[in-house]
Amino acid sequence: MIKKYLLCALAAFSILPLGAKTPERQVAIVAHRGYWACEAGGQSHNSIAALKASQDLDFWGSEFDVNMTKDGELLVFHDDAVNGKKFKDYDHAEFADVTLPNGEKIPTLDQYLTQFEQDKTCRLVFELKCHDTLARQIKAVEQSIEKLKAHGLYDPKQVIFISFDLQECLIFAEKCPGFTVQYLGSEAERNPEVLAKLGINGIDTNFWKFYSDPTWYTLARRNGMSVNVWTVDDKEHMRTMIELGVDYITTNDPELCRELLQEMGVKELKAGKNFK
Length: 276
Prior knowledge:
Blueprint: H1 2-13, E1 26-31, H2 48-56, E2 61-68, E3 74-76, E4 81-82, E5 85-86, H3 109-117, E6 123-128, H4 134-150, E7 159-163, H5 166-175, E8 180-183, H6 192-198, E9 202-206, H7 208-212, H8 215-222, E10 226-230, H9 235-244, E11 248-251, H10 254-264, E12 267-268
Parallel strand pairs: 1-2, 1-11, 1-12, 2-6, 6-7, 7-8, 8-9, 9-10, 10-11
Antiparallel strand pairs: 2-3, 4-5
Helix pairs in contact: 2-3, 4-5, 9-10
């Protein structure tokens, strides 16, 4: 049944224009939550070790997740809660002793950005997690901008913003003109054309969306949007996304993606470089 579905999806996919394999064709590799799935990364999502592994292997970017605690501290962690305690309901002190699999404490955004400062060729793919009120959304965005400025990383060539929270995307777009802001969702009523009219200039979409709705990619390109795709860990899905023409591939296996780009003769966008 799954095989039949995939064959049908790929057939639908064939109506889309494939990315031309010209010398100018480049794809950026984004390590999902850092390059955590390796010895150097300590099998620890969003750890400083995982970020350093991304930097050491010269991947274009490293994606990470940011949550805000009740007292306004920004922590680099994916889920909205730890041991049943939601960040929005507890102060930072409640999470100070929580350890990641490699023994690190949950990093503050300040600590994480300090590591980014060590090698600025690695770009920040900054995911701000959803916050439950407009006041907290605004505060989380403003705090994020302040931290980036404090670490000398507030630069549209250095960071792109992503979020599942459309309101946060809109706030970033308003407060950070010239920056790439990519919406992570894939709801039909928030297709790329709708998002572009709202001022969002990029999408970062679950790769399955391109199989189920072949218009998603063409609408994004028609509206001049950057196209990122998550989270692509299977080689053949990577191949399809590369052939489609996406700009960025977010993956837990960035080395596999690098090998595939070489196999296909498609240039990997080098660390420290940006799309023109």
